User: Fold these one by one.
Assistant:
Number 1:
Amino acid sequence: MRLKRVVLERLMRYHRFLSQTTASKPIQTITSAQIAEALDIDPTQVRKDFGAIGLVGIGRVGYQVEDVCCAVRTVMGFDKENPAVLIGVGQLGGALLTYPGFEKYGLSITAVFDSDPAKTGRSKAGHTIRSIRSLKPYIRKHDIMLAILCTPVEVSQTIADRLVSVGIKAIWNFTPTDLAVPPDVLVRDEHISLGLSEIAYHLKQ
């Protein structure tokens, strides 16, 4: 059964909460009511989400925390490596390259690309920046299915078309534009402008 995005997002909330909780105070078990209270979610929903990934609690005991975290990581695919390419080594792309937390989610950036000849051949966070012209051959050779897009908005769709044409199945989109892709390609948008607009609106009130 394919899980809906809202379920995946809740599962990640559970995982993050349990990871943070056990880091400060080791616990063996936890109930759906305790999780629900901490995250302001209905306990029934918590049990349904856990049931969807094969977890069954024990009456008055709850769930083994280690089992929950392991099940979420397995369902999400964190237990296997997902190699990715990053396109666009500007300030944002460069910052993503230095982020140390991707590995625990199974994401490994194996190559970076940029269209600026002045950047080609230079090193950034341990990666040698490659010419955008070598993007398609690299993806084909290494069977890459995930791309992180940090390009200027005016070229983002063109690059996305190239990525799709060589078999990319998921694009993590950091450009402020909506990409047109086939139905079998997932696009996860991280529109910083939308986040900032929500913050600005809240502060205005």
Note: The longest strand covers residues 107-114.
Number 2:
Amino acid sequence: MIDVITYPSDEAELKISAIAKRRPGADPALEARVLEIIGAVKSEGDAAVLRYTRRFDAPGLEEGRLRVSDEEIDAACGEVDSDFVSIIRTAIRNIEDFHKQQIRHSHFMTKPDGTFLGQIVRPVRAAGIYIPGGQGGETPLISSVLMNTIPARLAGVPDIAMVTPPRNDGSINPYLLTAAREAGVNRIYRAGSAWGIAALAYGTKSIQPVDVIVGPGNIYVALAKKLLSGEVGIDMIAGPSEVLVLADSSANADYIAADLLSQAEHDSMASAICITTEESLAGDISLSVSRQLTSLPRGETAAASIERYGAVFIVQSVDAAFGLANRIAPEHLELHIKDPLPWLGRIENAGAVFIGDYTPEPVGDYFAGPNHVLPTAGTARFASALGVDDFIKKTNVIAYSRAAFDRDARSIIRLAELEGLMAHAESVRIRVKK
């Protein structure tokens, strides 16, 4: 049974605190292990990547087979069914249509005094996409390939590399390879975990380095990205998945229970919360969660998540519900309330918002178009969804005319002197007309 808790209360604070503590923490021993892996890849290159891959994923992987060949990808595309390809292409169009609105362009301006200002917008040279193995390669994370690759391609990145753990026999799931080709990945490697991330960051004989690394993964992947941030750009340090549903008397308890479980099945650390104004609805949701759990293939995982990090909070008003939601700052926020649109302005902190009975979170995960790589663990207070901006760099351009320089020189000198940077001041003063 999912906990039904009145908010505000001491019990509610304890549950909220437990949920908040799911933030990715620093385990010194684990971090040291990841640093060791990174160091090995940096110094040994392919040899280290092969060693770790053989140890943890594909014992018989041969030297020289880190990169997936074009022939293997061709064969994979021939193995998948045409219905899958049609679905993938529709999803790609939806994701492209949404992300095209994010494309930036260089811009410039001139002033009457001859000043010329602007910003050059360019894509990074190369981007790396990390895709987890997914149950030994048997549950390929197709949606992650699309969501991470398409914004990079639309940004204009000319070289998109993907790393993913191979299956035990060294192969990659054909659905994953097909999705990568359809989305626009240029090169694919058999390399997972922290060694795959390190190989993308530093490069090896087989794996050319990249400038930005994005994509989900386990704690080893998250720590590797964290430790290599600065060496390369990263998207975010993702924590366990989470959903928060706001519901009033118009809501359907079975729909909400199903949506809570759709996140709980991800991971025993996932969080599934409902905030409602209706005590009777809270009870119905709790019963429905218990009933639906019995038929879930991943029921054990979902049950652990619901028990530790699930809750239905009962509040006094819809306004109080939004206040609590903003405090939690969820990755996914669903609105199951009678008239949701007037309340959108009340949302301050959320990775993505799903409105109405027929927009469950999986609609966004797979198909609608907005990106499903979202801030977790309360970071929606300051972070945003993955997008085109994560794959571009912006260079400011400044050109002053003599007239503009003479007008501003005294002010610049004063500011430099106040900061104690006399050489700054002199570089301006030496140009001032005597």
Note: The longest helix spans residues 82-99.
